[in-house]
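User: Predict the full complex structure for these chains.
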Amino acid sequence: MQAPSLAKVTRVDASAEAVAADLGVLMKHMFRTTNREIFSAVEEAGITFTQVKCLGILDELPSPIAIGALSETLGLSVPAISRAVDGLVQRGEVKRTEDPRDRRSKLLTLTAKGRRTFERFAALRFAGLKRFVADMSDEEREALAAGLRPLAGRLSP
Amino acid sequence: MQAPSLAKVTRVDASAEAVAADLGVLMKHMFRTTNREIFSAVEEAGITFTQVKCLGILDELPSPIAIGALSETLGLSVPAISRAVDGLVQRGEVKRTEDPRDRRSKLLTLTAKGRRTFERFAALRFAGLKRFVADMSDEEREALAAGLRPLAGRLSP
DNA sequence: TATTGTTATACTCTATAACTATA
DNA sequence: TATAGTTATAGAGTATAACAATA
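Assistant: Here is the predicted structure of the four-chain assembly.
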């Protein structure tokens, strides 16, 4: 893309209020256009949203995590996580082993199957976002690309 | 804000893939920083997420809506909506009256109390977005403002 | 006879409480 | 005695099925 013509670089209200309002509009539309499909895919896979979130946490963490820590991360009770994880172990998505340094604690890691499962859902979510982006005009998409880059560059590892 | 210096207007990948990826990063962070508070506020108010969504639909529609239509809009079963609405009626948030042209159908409208309730949650969500935006650097926020404006301008009424 | 909404029933997920095993 | 996790039990929300009222 070329540097934009000056005609496009009009002043924009960059107050927190204005930006938050526009962000709210964007979020609402993004949800409506991308969410329903994932919802039905998760349900069809016979898995729980909580279980998908468990997979997501395990996917992004570099080292194993225990039930209690996972519970705290997701803001759900320990028994709820224990049950969710138990289901994942039975499905072969997660490996649960005793921590050798404290045998009360169980360390959780993704199996290859679990990683594939999570990546399938992540791909579905990404496809929804892509469709949303592809529906924009070229001008909208280019402006958004330039506006997101500094922030996304900092936030993503 | 002045027109940006040329140094800032570097080329950015505006492909659907790149923009969708950055949008995904933004969304994830937005959730993590803004959602937990609303979650606890809803629970503390003794109301259901489904009921809040019902209030939101009624708030934005110009005319009354029936149970069946609300059910379809939210993607939940008619009995689930019937129960959710019943709770809202008992709390005085929603008015439910027979449609005079088809007395099987019940028309739903927000009461003043219902509108206030929804606006309280909307304000909470907005405050979360504002905090998220206020945490950015000036450069990030200004770039985002310019990038969101065309899209948000089109999407919002 | 078909349709709109409500009530009945069963199921899933979650939280609190009770429990087991390690520390 | 305290802590990590599991199992027991109860509660909330949803879906399917059965029903009542109206078309």
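Chain A touches chain B through 54 residues (CB under 8 Å).
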